[in-house]
Amino acid sequence: IEEYIKNYNKYDIIFMDISMPLVDGIKATKAIRKFEKEHLLNPIPIVALTANVLEKDRLMFFEAGGNYFLAKPTTQTVLISTLSQIFQ
Fold it and tell me: What mean pLDDT do residues 35-62 have?
């Protein structure tokens, strides 16, 4: 979160895990979206890349402002397809 806030203009995409030690991916996504809204920034694409694949995890991620959800392990094909959708 801090790195994005300090250098938001240097990022094109964020890959977010749902389970992280200090701040989970849901809270981190919400914090990023709050920062963008407060500073009138276009939202950066946030892609969950996580082993948390329950439907409730997906829903919470999307409700937090996430854009795409990939289950670990993922394949190169799925990753390329997702990136193609983002950067068309």
Answer: 96
